[in-house]
């Protein structure tokens, strides 16, 4: 998830669409808006992916609003209880909410970018502890277990994890599993 | 030579055990041996029943062949560990422990539990100590910052356990936080 040209995470995150309002007429590009028009007239709204939107905003051909995954409703939900928001619902399964937010932040002006950065960091920190706890809990169970003892809220939290959080979950679970295996192993034979 | 993905994130516990096995411990030998040169140094001579300091790997080897008795280090005793446990549970900081205590304790308890007094009690004390310190590192996670995090007196095994996801989380935080200040 860098600005690295080759980063796969950045490419995936950039695939998200945002709503843009075109300011100028663009002939022959109607298929971008998904409609049957031949041209795009100014003041038409169309969803376009961020990698395209970036250039359009820079060249001042379009305006855009803060997309819904970072709208007021989501922000208030995160402020109330970061762990109860399902981030994967906001950006589609396997989506990268944090990556998307970072890209939006880059395009925006200073104050709005600060606001979004606050939302992102607070959400991340709030959810991180829960991610780690669940990861260590799941390291304790064998590969077959994992369905029974978890309560409903724990399971729905796991389903709502964003892509970056899933990586962290896997890392933490892996190291916890290794430690457990080492502590309980007693290979006198090996020595 | 490329490492498989699972090994890239951190050192394995077995590797840490190998590194810790270089540590010198005292033994009571049951055989005689002249001063012998090994790659890491010359050890011996072994003259029973005098005690001698040799590396842990050599001590485990001799012990498994029943050629010595291991003398547990002073910190591997019920009194010391109990005191450390009370200190650990009463203060918010980590207490000072030998850096590789987890690995050395495990090796000694595995091969020479008969040489250690109250081996079971020591095992349970070590477990409690480990859990208390783990709880503290969880709290440290709350204070995670993008620029630095200081957890003094963490021991080698614990550092290795938390390293992968701590570093990744700090990386993510760096990207989320730094952006506006770079404007």
Strand order of the largest sheet of chain B: 4-1-5
Could you tell me which chain pair has the largest interface and how many residues each side has?
A-B, 36 and 34 residues
Low-confidence stretches of chain B: none
What count of structural domains of chain B?
A: 2
Oligomer: heterodimer
Count of helical segments of chain A? 8
The helix/strand class of chain B is mainly alpha
User: Helix count of chain B?
Assistant: 7
In the CATH hierarchy, the third-tier topology of the largest domain in chain B is known as: Methane Monooxygenase Hydroxylase, Chain G, domain 1
| CATH architecture grouping of the largest domain in chain B | Up-down Bundle
Number of strands of chain B: 5
The level of helicity of chain A is: 40-55%
Radius of gyration of chain A, whole Å: 21 Å
Biggest sheet descriptor of chain A:
3 strands, antiparallel
Distance between the termini of chain B: 41 Å
Task: Write out key terms for the chains shown.
heterodimer, A: about 190 residues, 3-stranded antiparallel beta sheet, B: mainly alpha, Ribosomal Protein L9, domain 1, 2 domains, two-stranded antiparallel sheet, about 50% helix, GINS_Psf3_sf (chain A)
Overview of the molecule:
- Chain B: Pfam families: PSF2_N, Sld5.
- The complex is a heterodimer of chains A (191) and B (183).
- With 191 residues, chain A is mainly alpha-helical.
- Chain A has a domain at 17-66.
- In chain A, 53% of the residues lie in helices and 7% in strands.
- Chain A has 8 helices and 3 strands, in the order αββαβαααααα.
- Chain A has a 3-stranded antiparallel sheet with strand order 2-1-3.
- With 183 residues, chain B is mainly alpha-helical.
- Chain B has helices at 5-8, 13-20, 56-64, 78-90, 101-111, 119-142, 156-182; strands at residues 24-29, 36-37, 42-43, 52-55, 68-71.
- In chain B, helix 3 runs parallel beside helix 5 (101-111) and helix 4 packs parallel to helix 6 (119-142).
- Chain B folds into 2 domains: 12-71, 3-Layer(aba) Sandwich (Ribosomal Protein L9, domain 1), CATH 3.40.5.50; 73-176, Methane Monooxygenase Hydroxylase, Chain G, domain 1 (Up-down Bundle), CATH 1.20.58.1020.
- Classes of the chains: A mainly alpha (191), B mainly alpha (183).
- The interface between A and B is medium-sized, with 36 and 34 residues.
């Amino acid at each position: 998830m860098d600005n690295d040209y080759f980063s796969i995470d950045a490419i995936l995150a950039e695939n998200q669409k945002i709503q843009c309002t075109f300011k100028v007429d663009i002939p022959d590009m109607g298929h971008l808006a998904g409609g049957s028009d031949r041209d795009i007239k100014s003041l038409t709204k169309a969803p376009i992916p961020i990698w395209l939107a970036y250039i359009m905003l820079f060249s001042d051909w379009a305006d855009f609003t803060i997309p819904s995954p970072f709208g007021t409703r989501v922000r208030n939900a995160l402020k109330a209880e970061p762990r109860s928001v399902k981030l994967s619902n906001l950006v589609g399964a396997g989506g990268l909410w944090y990556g998307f937010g970072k890209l939006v932040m880059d395009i925006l002006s200073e104050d709005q970018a600060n606001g979004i950065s606050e939302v992102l960091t607070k959400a991340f920190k709030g959810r991180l502890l829960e991610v780690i706890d669940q990861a260590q809990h799941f390291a304790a169970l064998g590969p077959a277990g994992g369905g029974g003892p978890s309560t409903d809220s724990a399971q729905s939290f796991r389903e709502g994890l964003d892509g970056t959080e899933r990586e962290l979950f896997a890392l933490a679970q892996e190291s916890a599993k290794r430690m457990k295996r080492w502590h309980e192993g007693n290979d006198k034979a090996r020595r | 030579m490329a490492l498989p993905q699972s090994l890239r994130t951190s050192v394995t516990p077995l590797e840490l055990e190998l590194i810790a096995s270089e540590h010198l411990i005292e033994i009571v030998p049951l055989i005689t041996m002249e001063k012998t040169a090994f790659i890491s140094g010359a050890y011996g001579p072994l003259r029973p029943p005098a005690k001698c300091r040799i590396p842990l790997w050599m001590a485990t080897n001799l012990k498994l062949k029943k050629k010595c008795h291991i003398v547990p280090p002073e910190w591997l005793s019920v009194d010391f560990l109990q005191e450390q446990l009370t200190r650990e549970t009463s203060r918010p900081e980590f207490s000072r422990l030998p850096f590789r205590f987890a690995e050395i304790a495990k090796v000694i308890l595995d091969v020479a539990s008969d040489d250690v007094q109250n081996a079971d009690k020591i095992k349970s004390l070590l477990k409690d100590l480990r859990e208390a310190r783990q709880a503290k590192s969880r709290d440290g996670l709350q204070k995670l910052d993008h620029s630095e995090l200081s957890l003094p007196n963490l021991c080698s095994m614990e550092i290795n356990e938390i390293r992968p996801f701590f570093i990744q989380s700090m990386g993510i935080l760096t990207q989320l936080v730094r952006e506006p200040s770079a404007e």
